[in-house]
Amino acid sequence: MILTVGNTKGGVGKTTLAINIAAARAKQGRDVLLIDGDRQGTAQTAIGFRAEREDLPGIACAAYPDGSILRSQLLQQRGKYDDIIIDAGGRDSTALRAALILTDVLLVPYRPGSFDVWALEDISELIKEARSMRDDLIAYTIINAADANPHSIDNREAAEIITDYTELAFLSTPIVGRKAFSNAAGGGMCVQEYKPIDPKASAELEALVKALFND
Ligand SMILES: Nc1ncnc2c1ncn2[C@@H]1O[C@H](COP(=O)(O)OP(=O)(O)OP(=O)(O)O)[C@@H](O)[C@H]1O
Ligand SMILES: [Mg+2]
Predict the structure, then answer these.
(1) Between the chain's N and C termini, which has fewer beta carbons within 10 Å?
(2) pLDDT given for residue 163 in this prediction
(3) What integer pLDDT is reported at residue 151 of this predicted model?
(4) DSSP per-residue letters across 166-199
(5) CA of 145 to the centre of ligand 1 (A)
(6) pTM of the predicted model over 0.85
């Protein structure tokens, strides 16, 4: 399956989640390719650290920030991996648009707080545009770096406002802001691999992966 983690808004956790999801799938024994679609190359650098760890299952990684190259590479490589995870770069990038045409599933993380929620308008437009060319694009959204208190006003507001965006299906189990997510991703790992294990973070990522892959 091809999964794209994308949002036109920066800093919402695209790279953090893409790495955590890719590593969680590799840990499940899947053959994974992680595509860094961002010129900053953060995901590729993190996977470089992972490669030094012989105890962890490997993840293939490539950087294709250019949309037309991403598209041609996806067409060539999609049959060769169990899962392809794309960290689609920032604002309206060509990589994001190219990914939306070929991906099976899009995951749109956003943070609680009005600026991020407004930005959902932009990604919704891109999803609409992609769906005019293909009607089978599945698009989910999830609150990332949520408040640890599930009843916090920020979390509630963020969950309520999403109902205005009908292009996106809301995943109701959030990813909370936890050091484990950022620390794990920095080393090219998922929270289930990063020691000491944070059981709450592990449970959150497990629920997300289950919802996305449904296998
Ligand atoms: N669930 C989380 N818990 C704790 N920290 C997080 C979480 N998600 C993201 N972060 C931190 O927030 C910052 C931004 O995350 P990240 O780089 O993944 O966002 P991005 O959407 O890829 O940003 P960019 O648009 O710059 O590529 C990073 O410092 C990251 O470690
Ligand atoms: Mg990023």
Answers:
(1) C
(2) 86
(3) 87
(4) TTSEEPSSPPB--HHHHHHHHTT--TTTSSSP-H
(5) 8
(6) yes
State whether the beta carbon of 64 lies less than 6 angstroms from ligand 1.
no
Burial (Cβ within 10 Å: 0-12, 13-18, ≥19) of residue 77:
middle
Would you state the structure tokens that stand for residue 97, as one six-digit string?
């648009």
Centre of ligand 2 to C-alpha 145, Å, is 14
- The verdict on the CB of residue 182 being under 6 Å from ligand 1 is yes
**Splitting the chain (215 residues) into consecutive groups of 10 residues, what average pLDDT does each group show?**
96 97 98 96 97 97 96 97 93 89 97 80 94 97 94 87 91 96 98 98 98 93
Cis geometry, peptide bond prior to residue 109 (ω within 30 degrees of 0): no
Spatial CB neighbours of 215, under 8 Å, sequence gap ≥ 6: none
The two structure tokens encoding residue 197: 């294990």
At a CB cut-off of 8 Å and minimum separation 6, what does 79 contact? none
Torsion (CA) 163, 165, 167, 170 in degrees, nearest 10: -40
- Which numbered atom of ligand 1 lies nearest the CA of 87? 22
Q: What range does the domain containing 64 cover?
A: 2-213
Structure confidence at residue 157 (pLDDT): 87
Q: How many Å apart are CA 173 and CA 43, to the nearest integer?
A: 24
Q: pLDDT value at position 93?
A: 83
CATH code for the domain of 58: 3.40.50.300
Q: Can you tell me the distance from the alpha carbon of 71 to that of 73, in angstroms, rounded to the nearest whole number? A: 5
Number of domains the chain is built from: 1
Positive/negative CA dihedral, 123, 124, 126, 131 = positive
